Each structure stands twice: as structure tokens, then as C-alpha cells.
Predict the structure.
Amino acid sequence: QVRLVESGGGLVQAGGSLRLSCTASGPTVDDYGLGWFRQSPGKERAFVARTSPNGGDSWYADVVKGRFTISLDNAKNTVYLQMSELSPEDTAVYYCNARRLTTSGAENYWGQGAQVTVSS
């Protein structure tokens, strides 16, 4: 089991930057890849970025490539999402995610969510 605690949400103007943090804990936390999803009102929860369990590889949704950067501090079990060039379309609740692939499918845990609001 993995516990995820997020911080760093807030209000920024278009073109600005924010950094989200998520700290993971649990006896098997090193088995999980960490990443971020977001959800806007009336929309499905959408993938944003993910890193491999060791932090060696990362993947991004096309809409955030070149603007967002995911990073992992393995010693702290903390994943970050550095967001720049923000636009109002980035306004959403951002959820930290821990995922582990098993023989029966993907095992997922979620953070409590962090509100990011981008004003025009």
C-alpha cells in the first residue's frame, strides 16, 4: 500500500509557473512508478506525466510536452511536477499517482488532489 501526500497548488497568471510536490510512503513504494493526472470540471481524469520506478525514464501527455517537467528525488520518495508557460486550459485538480503493474493489471494509488488555477 502507498500513501501519497501532495502540496504546491495555487493561483497563477497565464504564462506563469508552479511546482507541485508529492511524497510517497509505504513498505513497497520503490516498486511503483510515480506520476500526475489532472481533472477539470466536466472532463475525464487525464494523464499528464509519469516516471519509471527508478526515475530513469519519463513520459508526457502531448499537451504538456515542452512546458512541464517531471522529476523524482528517489532518496525522499518525492515526485515533482514543474509547470511553466501555464494557460487557463491547465486549470484543474492535479492528482499524484502511484502505479505498479501486476499479473492481474495495474495497481493504482492516488493523492488527495491539488487545485491549480490559471487566470487569463
